[in-house]
């Protein structure tokens, strides 16, 4: 069992709803109660004032008294309002606090449930139970105690006040309430029943949607839209039917309440009026009585609403808890001891594993694995080799027999014991969203209490071991670093730039067109050619430029606006004509300034305008955008005349001079630019960084900064970088820094931004970092290329030899000779075991498998 | 800074890919192909520039594109038993293409190409070729036939060159004549 916290002695799914309310945040609930009690006085006090205003002040025609009572009245009403405000805030606060705890504890419980639970359970059900349905309960929780207490007390106080005024009248006007006590709960029970059905139907509907999204490939592939729609439609219909009935009952309750509410004043006016006419009741008392009667209804209504939401929350709560009503199979922490530091002896005796459907996957397995022994589990698919690995890693539990690790029965070991001593790599490992680093340390972090987090050197060494370094370097080079992040490395990167610009220039020249303040750049777009730098505040991005007044003024002044509009128009019309039949394929847009999703915008635009010199502002902006994106050598659909290049160069100089106040001549001569020279204003444009050899470009990637130019050929660059720059990086001691930056690469949801091989290597590195004494690998290298596979195999044979117990499920039999022992499984039983040579000599099942493979 | 005013025509963008299209139209491999196909190839072709002596492709590298010579000369050579054998000198006005098989299949280059002079090339990638052929499947067969013919022509040219330079030991009488 899970180690119980003092407060949580009952299993979470067995706790009633009020368990949470009565045991959590009691002091805050007490404060709430106090505020409520005090606020009651300020609710009744205005009624007394009403009576006195009429009976005393008005009757005696005493203005002084009138002002006093009115002042007291408004004072009390304001205080009551403020207190109500405080009560509401406190209530939500307490509710959310309890909800946080409830959700955290439930999530912890849910995560520990056995894998079999998740085989049966739709993720949609778990997700909606943990989110939307718990939220609905949260709203109830805060007021769970306060609302009934407030309502009952308020109700009693007002009734007391009414009895004090006139007992007979009070008794009469209360006459309707007992009837209501029977009618409303009856309707409420009906409502509850329908509501339960609604929750279930909504959940089933969510599952249908969830399933079709997961299987969207299959749906598109089979064009089974109709089928899926039908599945959902039946639930939609059911839901409509339920909701319809639900609301009939709900508003029935409302109607009943309204009717009862209207009967009260009727009795009051008839009896109270009669008594007032006959002088047995003062007018002031009648007004106060009427107010009290009206007020007494509020707490009553609140009580009824509370009852409804209580029932609702109760149903939701019970249903949530029912889903997760299972015991986690293993305790989280060892009871009263440190986690075991295991050697890695594994022993299985008569182990049998059967899935719930009755199929026996493993039968009567007897196996002894010595500490630091490396064994391979082989067999045809379905032989049970992966299941055996899962049983040893405590991910499945045997139905019969015993498994012991270092003589400790595995079912008595806590998850922490397993986490410290066993590292498991799955065939299709899961990569979490977050950075490479987050994923690498995931396993170690989980047992951080027992093991220190790996330092940088360890991380980098493991990355090298599994052959992930090239990828990490590439990620690092693609990073865009902020001023702060870049600070420690800035000078080293600039030094690297200098090396490429000078001693490696000849090597890189064919691959890179270096930035040169006085030349036109054929591999950069027109925007870069003009702006020749970046603004940290994104002032001069392609999308912002058409709306930049000073830039546009300068463009017109330099006679460049018309030619650029002409270029944009030519680009748009050429592309629209050429690619009209290909707008569904991104491939055809790779070397075009227009993006595939913009095709329809531009095609509509061309229908609207007759030529490039349109007056339509939006059209001009669209054409200009296309022109500014144009890269002559990449977008071979058009070419620029040299006169245009000269004009653009002139514009670049004018832009530097007039808009960003940069002295490029200084940059050319001295390698540094002076942001504010002579007569120019300082400071204002400091966010602008030009392409100047001494300046780090914070809006560009690390690679852009090192190369300091536009890429002419990715292929050549790749070769150059690999051969030369890596060495130069090493000489400059930059490689580790770049790798460290690469570790911060965001892998995307489920590691979507990584290739299959990268994910697999990352998972292997994650397990290696744990440095556990037992390593279990389930066909981990199956999806890797031969070189990577050999690399991993080599680590097992050298670094891990005599250090770790290794259990490897292996499909490729040519890898098996390296193992100390090969265990051959067939239909859930061990049929052979021994070294590679022994098994080959025996010419039994293993021999047959190798023959089948070759 | 004051520049002389240009006439509007001087600033008008030029249709580079129509030039490419004309060039492609003159090639035997595209002769008779549909205008749409040639136009697309002209659009998807890339211009590449190499300076004298620069390696364009090297033996053993992964092939991915077909080259056409717009200007300059390209030397084709091959290593055999660690000796470098010159096979062909291509220029814009003779056989002006190489690597045509890359359009059809993935393999490692079995020869190298070097810029003999400064050269300007036009390349068409296998990916582009496949994409275009997917859209015009009816042209595929004719294209394949022409690519094979190109290869045969080159083979004949290279064989003649080698036979001209073959060592006397390699020469054998036809056994029938003996």
Chain-wise SSE layout:
The complex is a heterodimer of chains A (854) and B (178).
Chain A: H1 17-23, H2 26-58, H3 63-112, H4 115-120, H5 123-143, H6 146-165, H7 167-173, H8 177-214, H9 216-222, H10 225-277, H11 283-323, E1 346-354, E2 360-369, E3 374-378, H12 385-392, E4 400-405, E5 408-409, H13 415-421, E6 422-425, H14 436-440, H15 442-446, H16 456-465, H17 469-477, H18 483-486, H19 490-501, H20 505-508, E7 512-514, H21 526-531, E8 533-535, H22 549-557, H23 561-578, H24 599-608, H25 617-629, H26 642-658, H27 664-670, E9 688-690, H28 702-707, E10 709-711, H29 714-731, H30 735-742, H31 756-770, E11 774-778, H32 786-797, E12 805-809, E13 821-826, E14 829-834, H33 836-842, H34 845-853
Parallel strand pairs in A: 3-12, 3-13, 6-11, 11-12
Antiparallel strand pairs in A: 1-2, 1-4, 4-5, 7-10, 8-9, 13-14
Helix pairs in contact in A: 2-3, 2-6, 2-11, 3-5, 5-8, 5-11, 6-7, 6-11, 8-10, 8-11, 10-11, 16-31, 17-30, 23-24, 23-25
Chain B: H1 16-26, H2 35-44, E1 46-50, E2 55-57, E3 65-71, E4 73-80, E5 83-91, E6 97-98, E7 112-115, E8 119-125, H3 126-135, H4 137-164
Antiparallel strand pairs in B: 1-8, 2-7, 3-6, 3-8, 4-5, 4-7
Helix pairs in contact in B: 1-2, 2-3, 3-4
């Amino acid at each position: 069992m899970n180690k119980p916290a003092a407060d949580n002695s009952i299993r979470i799914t067995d706790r009633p709803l009020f368990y949470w309310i009565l045991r959590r945040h009691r002091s805050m609930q007490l404060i709430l109660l106090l505020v409520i009690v005090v606020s009651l006085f300020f609710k009744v006090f205005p009624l007394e004032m009403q009576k006195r205003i009429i009976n005393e002040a008005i009757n005696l025609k005493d203005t002084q008294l009138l002002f006093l009572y009115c002042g007291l009245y408004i004072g009390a009403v304001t205080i009551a309002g403020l207190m109500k405000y405080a009560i509401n805030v406190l209530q939500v606060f307490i509710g959310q606090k309890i909800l946080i705890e409830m959700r955290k504890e439930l999530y912890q419980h849910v995560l520990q449930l056995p894998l079999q639970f998740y085989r049966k359970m739709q993720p949609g059900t778990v997700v909606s139970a943990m989110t939307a349905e718990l939220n609905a309960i949260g709203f109830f929780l805060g007021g769970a105690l306060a609302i009934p207490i407030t309502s009952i007390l308020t109700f009693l106080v007002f009734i007391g006040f009414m009895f004090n005024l006139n007992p007979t009248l009070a008794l009469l006007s209360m006459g309707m309430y007992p009837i209501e006590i029977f009618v409303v709960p009856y309707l409420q029970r009906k409502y509850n029943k329908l509501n339960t059905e609604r929750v279930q139907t909504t959940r089933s509907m969510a599952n249908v949607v969830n399933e079709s999204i997961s299987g969207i490939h299959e749906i598109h592939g089979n064009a089974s839209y109709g089928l899926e729609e039908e599945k959902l439609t039946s639930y939609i219909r059911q839901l409509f039917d339920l909701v319809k009935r639900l609301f009939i009952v709900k508003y029935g309750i409302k109607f009943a309440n309204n009717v009862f509410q209207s009967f009260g004043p009727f009795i009051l006016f008839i009896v109270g009026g009669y008594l007032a006419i006959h002088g047995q009741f003062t007018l002031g008392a009648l007004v106060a009585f009427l107010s009290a009667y009206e007020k007494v209804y509020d707490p009553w209504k609140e009580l009824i609403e509370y009852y409804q939401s209580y029932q609702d929350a109760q149903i939701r709560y019970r249903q949530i808890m029912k889903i997760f009503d299972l015991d986690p199979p293993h305790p989280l922490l060892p009871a009263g001891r440190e986690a075991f530091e295991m050697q890695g002896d594994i022993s299985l005796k008569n182990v049998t594993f059967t899935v719930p459907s009755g199929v026996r996957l493993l039968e009567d397995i007897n196996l002894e694995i010595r500490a630091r022994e490396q064994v391979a589990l082989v067999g045809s698919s379905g032989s049970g080799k992966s299941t055996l690995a899962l049983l040893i890693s405590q991910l499945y539990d045997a139905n019969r027999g015993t498994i012991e690790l270092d003589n400790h029965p595995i079912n008595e070991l806590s998850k922490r014991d397993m986490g410290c001593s066993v590292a498991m790599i799955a065939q299709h490992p899961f990569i979490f969203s977050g950075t490479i680093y987050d994923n690498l340390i995931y396993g170690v972090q989980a047992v951080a209490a027992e093991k220190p987090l790996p330092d940088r050197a360890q991380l980098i060494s493991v990355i090298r071991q599994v052959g992930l370094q090239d990828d990490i370097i590439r990620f690092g080079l693609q990073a865009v670093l902020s001023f702060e992040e870049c600070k420690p490395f800035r000078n080293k990167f600039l030094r690297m730039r200098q090396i490429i610009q000078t001693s490696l220039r000849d090597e890189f020249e064919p691959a890179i067109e270096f930035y040169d303040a006085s030349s036109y750049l054929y591999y950069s777009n027109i925007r870069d050619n003009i702006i020749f730098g970046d603004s940290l505040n994104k002032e001069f991005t392609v999308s912002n430029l058409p709306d930049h007044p000073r830039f546009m003024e300068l463009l017109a002044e330099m006679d460049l606006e018309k030619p650029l509009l002409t270029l944009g128009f030519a680009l748009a019309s050429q592309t629209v004509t050429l690619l009209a039949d290909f707008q569904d394929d991104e491939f055809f847009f790779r070397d075009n300034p227009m993006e595939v999703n913009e095709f329809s915008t531009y095609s509509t635009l061309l229908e609207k305008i007759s030529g490039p010199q349109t007056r339509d502002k939006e059209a001009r902006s669209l054409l200009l955008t296309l022109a500014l994106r144009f890269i002559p050598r990449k977008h071979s659909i058009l070419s620029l005349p040299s006169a245009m290049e000269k004009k653009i160069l002139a514009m670049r100089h004018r832009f530097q001079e007039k808009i960003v106040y940069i002295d490029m001549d200084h940059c050319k001569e001295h390698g540094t630019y002076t942001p504010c020279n002579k007569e120019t204003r300082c400071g204002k444009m400091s966010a602008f960084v030009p392409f100047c050899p001494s300046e780090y470009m914070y809006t560009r990637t690390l690679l852009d900064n090192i190369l300091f130019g536009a890429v002419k050929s990715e292929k050549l660059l790749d070769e150059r970088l690999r051969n030369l720059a890596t060495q130069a990086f090493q000489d400059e001691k930059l490689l580790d820094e770049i790798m460290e930056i690469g570790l911060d690469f965001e892998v995307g949801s489920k590691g979507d931004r990584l290739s299959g091989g990268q994910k697999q290597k990352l998972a292997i590195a994650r397990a290696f970092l744990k440095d556990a004494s037992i390593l279990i690998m389930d066909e981990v290298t199956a999806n890797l290329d031969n070189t990577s596979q050999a690399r991993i195999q080599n680590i097992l044979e050298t670094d891990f030899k005599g250090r770790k117990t290794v259990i490897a499920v292996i499909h490729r039999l040519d890898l098996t000779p390296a193992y100390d022992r090969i265990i051959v499984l067939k239909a859930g039983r061990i049929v052979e075991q021994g070294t590679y040579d022994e098994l080959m000599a025996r010419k039994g099942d293993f021999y047959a498998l190798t023959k089948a493979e070759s | 800074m004051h520049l002389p005013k240009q006439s509007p025509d001087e600033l008008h963008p030029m249709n580079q890919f129509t030039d490419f299209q004309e060039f492609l139209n003159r090639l035997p491999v595209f002769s008779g192909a549909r205008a749409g196909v040639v136009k697309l190839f002209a659009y998807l072709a890339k211009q590449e520039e190499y300076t004298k002596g620069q390696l364009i492709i090297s033996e053993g590298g992964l092939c991915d594109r077909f080259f056409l010579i717009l200007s300059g000369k390209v030397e084709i050579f091959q290593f055999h038993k660690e000796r470098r054998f010159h096979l062909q000198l291509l220029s814009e006005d003779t056989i002006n293409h190489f690597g045509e098989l890359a359009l059809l299949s993935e393999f490692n280059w079995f020869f190298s190409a070097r810029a003999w002079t400064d050269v300007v090339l036009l390349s068409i990638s296998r990916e582009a070729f496949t994409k275009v052929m997917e859209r015009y499947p009816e042209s595929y067969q004719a294209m394949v036939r022409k690519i094979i013919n190109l290869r045969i022509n080159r083979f004949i040219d290279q064989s003649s060159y080698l036979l001209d330079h073959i060592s006397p030991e390699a020469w054998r009488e036809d056994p029938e004549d003996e």
